[in-house]
Specification:
By secondary structure, the chain is α/β, with parallel strands linked by helices. It has two domains: 93 residues, 3-Layer(aba) Sandwich (Glutaredoxin); 103 residues, Glutathione S-transferase Yfyf (Class Pi), Chain A, domain 2 (Up-down Bundle). It is built from eight helices and five strands; from the N terminus they run βαβαββααααααβ. The protein has a five-stranded mixed beta sheet with strand order 4-3-1-2-5, covered by helices on one side. The chain is globular and about 50 Å long. It starts with 13 loop residues before the first strand and ends in an 8-residue tail after the last strand.
Length: 226
Amino acid sequence: MAAIGAKRGGTDLMQLFYAPRSPFSRKILAAIVELGLTAQVSLVRVDPWTHETLRRYNPACKVPTLLLADGSALFDSPVIARYLDSLSENTLIPPGPQVWDALRREALGDALAEAVIRRFVDQLSRRDDRLDRVVARQEVAITAILDRLEAAADWMRAPTDLGHLAIACALDYLDGRSPELAWGAQRHLLAAWFYDFRGNSSMKIAADPEKGAFRIVNQSHPLAEV
């Protein structure tokens, strides 16, 4: 296994702890496909709420977590994505000043996913007006991010980078968790881009990674709900 930051890793398999519904897991799965690294990564499907093996590697017990061949682990999807990018001759991080556009898009996509998750969880546990205000705040964030993505449409024509994957995975999660928001009704450019981009092979594989693209290490734990 190459050192962190080196191009081209060795033949040792890395293990990705992931949850199928997690938009951050899905972003990393799509990145692995785009980078041509499926043969170097095996999958461990976990429930991050209860999986104590995951906690040994990531004390926050969150997905995705990438276990390296030397027994160390990387966590937080932007960190994992940059490490994986360093192993491939392909890249999802453009050179020069364009890198900041890509990383800004990734941050927007991740923020959208976080807001959708928080809204969903808080709706489940609503008990008083304080949580109503928290849910409303997440809806304001979701709306603002979607409007920003719709207004700055030039990014949709750029070559695929981490930002595109983060945005697409967040929108897919939004569709599944909060269809009542009907986000595409007033954002035709963003909706058209998303429903086209969702047809890419990397997105299809990331949506159902156990169909053969990856080696599966462990399926003994129940699916995570978030």
